[in-house]
């Protein structure tokens, strides 16, 4: 291997990956839609990830140590098998490798290479601890910025830039707000020498965004709520020995949660002009107001069986349930449950004339809004099993290396959200997920740097 070429490739990937990570954290879908040289930035990311994936196919035991991948040999082998299922599918369905749509529909596979790529340049990351400490401090403002952007304060000049240079402008999605919230908190917990500071930040940042997430997306809300409970429980011993701080922590959480609930609920505090108006200004009243916007309670409590299918009174939930069950039934009918539909075209149930509206008002929605059902639809039950094995092996690798389960505080919220959303079918969310997973495996040391 040419040493100079390898070093240059490492330097390029280090700065490229860091740039994409920051861009995705800050500007979400709009960032990956920027057009560069006739290609959207997200397409370039997927293309580089594909090339990186092909490189990893040819790694052998002699290269593992040099590439810092010794700890991840089982994950890498599973990844190779996943790529193998893709290649078999392409041959079976006569899929064109020159069609960019093939790589769009299979992007959920290539994005895995982001994790291995980060491990590949781990030495560069370890030599840049000061840079990452500075970055971590800057990221503390990101969840608050997303909160302001999502509640009516998105700067016009930024909107104009993306309207002009991106394929589309999107306000930040709930899932991206959620994962940014997780990353900012975990990073601060890892670099903060005083646990009180990081827990104080945690005590107001998560409660501040919970009402916003409840309004935007139930899945993102549940993910952030799980994160709050997980971190609280993992620090329970610290709270027991610092009871005064626990009181401060709970007061801070309550104040910011209540204040944000009123802010998101859109309560008008000026009642002086009309004494006949009776407004419910209680915290429960405003939570109800937020929940009713997405009929959250209806979605959680209205599942029932009808004609052998799971249905819900909530329209959004029922829309997803209908698609997922149609995917399974259609694959079974066509005897494709093992192979999936492949990567040539839109998943057939999305264009079902008996269920109009699945493609959305603009006719561009192709997503089944579930990480699991998307994998099942594209690669069949074999590939779904391999993905479950891959993520499970990551957890076991972490356990073997660090002797704890703290990684679940990041992974479980991501999958709570992803199982009912389309986030892993895009570019920015899986990029942030795999990048930060790699970061945690590189820097985490429970005796020195933990969360």
Describe it for me?
- With 451 residues, this protein is an all-alpha fold.
- It has one domain (3-261, 325-349, 360-443).
- The chain is 68% helix and 3% strand.
- The chain contains 22 helices and 4 strands.
- It has helices at residues 3-32, 41-57, 61-64, 73-92, 100-105, 107-110, 113-120, 122-126, 129-139, 142-153, 156-165, 174-191, 195-216, 218-234, 236-241, 243-265, 283-293, 296-301, 315-333, 371-402, 408-418, 428-443; strands at 35-36, 39-40, 303-306, 309-312.
- The protein has a two-stranded antiparallel ribbon with strand order 1-2.
- Helix 19 (315-333) crosses helix 20 (371-402).
- It is globular, with a radius of gyration of 23 Å.
- The two termini are 38 Å apart.
- Mean pLDDT is 85; it is low at 267-281.
How is the secondary structure organized here?
Elements: H1 3-32, E1 35-36, E2 39-40, H2 41-57, H3 61-64, H4 73-92, H5 100-105, H6 107-110, H7 113-120, H8 122-126, H9 129-139, H10 142-153, H11 156-165, H12 174-191, H13 195-216, H14 218-234, H15 236-241, H16 243-265, H17 283-293, H18 296-301, E3 303-306, E4 309-312, H19 315-333, H20 371-402, H21 408-418, H22 428-443
Helix pairs in contact: 1-7, 1-22, 2-7, 4-20, 7-22, 9-12, 10-12, 10-13, 12-13, 12-14, 12-21, 12-22, 13-14, 13-16, 14-21, 16-17, 19-20
């Amino acid at each position: 291997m040419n040493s100079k070429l390898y070093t240059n490739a490492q330097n390029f990937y280090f700065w490229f990956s860091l740039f994409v990570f920051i861009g995705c954290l800050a500007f979400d879908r709009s960032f990956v839609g920027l057009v560069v040289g006739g290609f959207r930035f997200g397409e370039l990311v997927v293309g580089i990830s594909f090339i990186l994936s092909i490189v990893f196919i040819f790694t052998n035991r002699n290269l593992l140590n040099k590439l810092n991948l010794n700890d991840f040999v089982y994950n890498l082998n599973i990844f190779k098998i996943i790529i193998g299922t893709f290649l078999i599918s392409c041959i079976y369905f006569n899929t064109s490798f020159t069609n960019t749509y093939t790589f769009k529909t299979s992007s959920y596979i290539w994005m895995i290479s982001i994790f291995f790529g980060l491990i590949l340049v781990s030495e560069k990351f370890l030599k840049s601890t000061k840079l990452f400490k500075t970055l971590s401090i800057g990221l503390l403002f990101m969840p608050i910025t997303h909160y302001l952007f999502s509640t009516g304060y998105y700067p016009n000049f930024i909107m104009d830039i993306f309207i002009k240079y991106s394929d589309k402008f999107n306000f930040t999605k709930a899932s991206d707000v959620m994962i940014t919230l997780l990353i900012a908190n975990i990073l601060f917990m890892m670099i903060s020498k005083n646990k009180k500071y990081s827990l104080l930040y945690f005590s107001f940042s998560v409660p501040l965004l919970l009402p916003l997430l409840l309004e935007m997306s139930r899945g993102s809300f549940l993910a952030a709520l799980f994160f709050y409970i997980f971190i609280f429980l993992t620090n329970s011993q610290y709270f027991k020995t610092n009871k005064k701080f626990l009181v401060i922590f709970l007061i801070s959480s309550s104040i910011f949660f209540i204040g944000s609930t009123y802010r998101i609920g859109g309560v008008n505090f000026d009642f002086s002009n009309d004494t006949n108006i009776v407004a419910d200004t209680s915290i429960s009243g405003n939570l109800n107001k937020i929940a009713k916007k997405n009929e959250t309670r209806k979605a959680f409590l209205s599942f029932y069986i009808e004609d052998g299918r799971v249905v819900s009174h909530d329209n959004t939930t029922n829309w997803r349930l209908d698609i997922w069950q149609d995917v399974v039934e259609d694959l079974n009918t066509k005897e494709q449950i093992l192979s999936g539909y492949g990567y040539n075209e839109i998943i057939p149930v999305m264009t079902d004339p008996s269920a109009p509206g699945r493609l959305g008002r603009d006719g561009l929605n192709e997503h089944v809004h579930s990480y699991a059902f998307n994998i099942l639809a594209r690669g069949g039950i074999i590939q779904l099993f391999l993905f479950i094995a891959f993520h499970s092996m990551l957890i076991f690798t972490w356990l073997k290396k660090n002797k704890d389960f703290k990684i679940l505080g990041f992974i479980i919220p991501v999958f709570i959200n992803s199982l009912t959303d389309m986030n892993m079918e895009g570019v920015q969310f899986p990029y942030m997920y795999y990048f930060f997973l790699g970061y945690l495996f590189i820097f985490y040391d429970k005796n020195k740097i933990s969360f």
